Request: fold
Amino acid sequence: MKKLVILGAGTGGTIMANRMRKELDRDEWDITIVDKYKSHYYQPGFLFIPFGMYKKRDVVKPKSDFIPYGVNVIYNEIDRVDGEKNQVLLKDGVVLNYDFLIIATGVKIFPDETPGIKGNLWHKKVFDYYTIEGSSALADFFKTWEGGDLVLNIAENPIKCPVAPLEFVMFADAFFVERGMRDKVNIKFVTPMSGAFTKPRASKVLGGLLKEKNIEIVPDFYIEKVDNENQKIVSYDEQEVHFDCLVTIPVHKGDPMIGRSGLGDDMDFALTDKYTLRSDKFENIFILGDAANIPTSKAGSVVHFASEIVFENLMCAIENRPLTGKFDGHSNCYIETGFGKGALIDFNYDTEPLPGHFPFPGIGPFGLLKETRMNHYGKLLFRWMYWHILLKGKEMPISAHMTMAGKKLHDI
Amino acid sequence: MAEKTYAGVTINVDEEGYMTDSSQWTKEVAAEIAKEEGIDELTDTHYAVLEFIRQKVSEGATLTIRAIGKSGHTDIKGFYKLFPGAPLKKATKIAGVPKPSSCV
Reply:
């Protein structure tokens, strides 16, 4: 019996468990998936929780609902991977042998990396919204908040879903307008980047949107610490920004298990070939999703597109053929802009987000790099597609490779 | 593709002034780019950091301020003092490597 082991039962791991179980013969292949937690969170939904648009029950389901019959599930912590011996060592001494391994352990926030984030104001005036605990605490806080300086800070890139911080401040704008207290809330977007977003055209459009909504951008701010006593964030070059409510996007790192296994960089992201998605260290290990150090967005859409490449290349490797799948870094993100509207960006390693229509040229129904109502519905619809189509590894109506059809190179 | 002349050598640069051919880099070129960025003189520590950046980039690693703070040549505060303002952007420009793409 040959063995495929999948580490992580999040978006990527679950998709692969479904696809591989369908593809590989049960008489020949054992498939095992390992994860610490039993709950699957729809992470894009965390953004909606602080504003009362979703509740916890909207974003959580048991992992076991999505893992197909015929796949062994182990809920346990992973100690490390021994690539030389083709073994995964679990915390309690269990050893799993593998012929092929998929690492899809994702990325987590590490608030402790920045002094003062977890000080005495943590979850009182300092919040994250990248965890269910943080976004729920912030929802409670906003219910009675009377206003002041609302500061959103990105500690360090890369982060999960690079547009989420923009969506957060635009939602906050709409939320406080609707509550009739926008004049009492001063919203600041404090970022280590030099603008709203890194890709030039999108940065211009999104930066313009923030300005229209009276949201101040404080660029080139690299946080050193949170001063809890004076309610300030302080940068390494001694800039200071006062807050009454700080929403922090803490430092992100990969699973420490990747570091312990010697498979990663200094942020515990697994060293990965950005085209084949194979580990740089071992030929029978593939890396899927946020766990990889590839230069693309850490987002569900990327995981989904990348899963098609991992599937193709894993099958090539199993059947001893040269790897034919080549990932182009395709990313497709709906951006909530508040008041029932949204924008959409579609890009890859080489092409920055451009204006136009998606997926059908000239028709849409979605508009690229501009605010429309349809884009907002696209995002809401996506939650249903996530639970019912995407996780189960069924066909989605969007190609894994980015296409230039419908995109305009000029005219912005 | 644009060209610029530093220390008597013609260098290929992109529209933001980042060198597109890292092999054209020399210490003299670095010193002239540094002047354009408002750094009058490059010390040994500057060069050590620049070499560290060049090595990391050639290995294909993702460059972060955090990594430079752990490089052993300087800490993050020191890195800001060496390349004031936006240190990673300035340092990569002077090191003759592409603008960091970690932020996507």
Remarks:
- Residues 2-94 of chain B form one domain.
- The longest strand of chain B covers residues 2-6.
- The beta strands of chain B are 2-6, 9-13.
- The first helix of chain B runs from residue 27 to 36.
